[in-house]
């Protein structure tokens, strides 16, 4: 879409000074003050979001069960639970045929994914409960309340905060110089989200282990379940991140592109939650197969499908990059004898 121009701009041959007539640039002291105030406000909002997230995480550590993480056994369970998600995120990073993303930006994105997960937790617990009650017809149809929770709150909120982790820092860096970079940073934000979510589930579960019970067995069980759930966050946010990258290089349509990415991630995420919560127990009951076996089979098939679709999308980009790169190479000079 062509940039809109004022009639005076369109007709000017360059001979007129159009400052504050139809154009603007920083000239006066007030102009510089206004520009500085604007940028300070933007930076202030960003830092406020980060500080609030840090404070929430701090309260969780003090008031919650994260103190258990100092137990090397519990820390080991958390570390093991994110191995599959880490391997997937690393593979997506390696699958990028453009310039490799710097480690420091990946680390910051990972940490922001951890921090911003707290916002999702608060919204899921507050808004989510109201939506679930209303969606169920105040308890008349519980399954509808669960669907409302997953599709209207959990899915969109969690995918939005992971995308915010990318938008807050990596998106603004010059190293974010290709559409596919969005998928890489989205995957890393998803890894951060999965890490803190797994830590929360594992510590909460182990807090309820009665004295004398086998902590190792209880920890192994919950770590295995969380290891299966973790890769999903990487997959969902990689999809959303890819469309964030597409939006960065198509600013005229950035809004709809980001919304499309969030819709895709939300639908895949919420469908996973619904199937894991509702469908898996039904199948296990009908077939008399162990619930864990049914859950494992579902995760392998479901995540496998969307990993394939994600890799196919990235492969399409990589193929186009290679073709464009070959076309950009200078032709061989003719042999003049």
UniProtKB/TrEMBL annotation:
Segments crossing the lipid bilayer: 37-62, 74-93, 105-123, 135-157, 178-202, 222-245, 257-280, 292-311
Domain of life, per lineage: Archaea
InterPro entries: PrsW (IPR026898)
Record keywords: Membrane, Transmembrane, Transmembrane helix
Pfam family, one: PrsW-protease
Keyword Cytoplasm: no
Molecular function terms from GO: peptidase activity
Protein name according to UniProt: Membrane proteinase PrsW, cleaves anti-sigma factor RsiW, M82 family
Organism of derivation: Halorientalis regularis
Lineage start: Archaea, Methanobacteriati, Methanobacteriota, Stenosarchaea group, Halobacteria
């Amino acid at each position: 879409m062509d940039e809109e121009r004022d009639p005076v701009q369109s007709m000017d041959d360059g001979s007129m000074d159009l400052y504050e007539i139809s154009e603007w640039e920083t000239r006066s002291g007030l102009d510089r003050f206004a520009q500085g105030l604007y940028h300070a406000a933007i930076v202030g909002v960003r830092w406020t979001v980060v500080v609030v997230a840090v404070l929430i995480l701090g309260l969780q550590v003090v008031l919650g069960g994260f103190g258990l993480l100092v137990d090397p056994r519990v820390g080991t369970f958390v570390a093991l639970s994110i191995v599959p998600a880490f391997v997937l995120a690393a593979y997506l990073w390696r699958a990028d045929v453009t310039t490799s993303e710097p480690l420091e930006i990946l680390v910051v994105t990972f940490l922001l994914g951890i921090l911003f997960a707290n916002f999702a937790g608060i919204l899921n617990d507050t808004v989510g409960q109201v939506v679930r009650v209303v969606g169920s017809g105040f308890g008349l149809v519980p399954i509808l309340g669960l669907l409302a929770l997953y599709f209207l709150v959990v899915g969109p909120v969690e995918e939005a905060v992971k995308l915010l982790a990318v938008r807050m820092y990596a998106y603004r860096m010059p190293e974010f110089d290709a559409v596919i970079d969005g998928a890489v940073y989205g995957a890393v934000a998803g890894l951060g989200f999965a890490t803190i979510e797994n830590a929360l589930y594992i510590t909460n579960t182990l807090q309820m282990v009665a004295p004398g019970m086998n902590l190792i067995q209880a920890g192994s069980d919950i770590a295995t379940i969380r290891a299966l759930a973790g890769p999903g966050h990487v997959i969902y946010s990689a999809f959303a991140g890819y469309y964030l990258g597409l939006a960065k290089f198509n600013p005229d349509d950035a809004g709809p592109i980001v919304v499309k990415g969030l819709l895709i991630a939300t639908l895949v995420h919420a469908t996973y939650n619904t199937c894991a919560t509702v469908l898996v127990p039904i199948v296990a009951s009908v077939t008399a197969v162990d619930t864990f076996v049914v859950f494992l089979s579902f995760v392998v098939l479901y995540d496998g499908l969307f990993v394939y679709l994600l890799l196919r999308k990235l492969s399409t980009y990589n193929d186009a990059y290679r073709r464009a790169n070959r076309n950009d190479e200078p032709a061989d000079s003719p042999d003049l004898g």
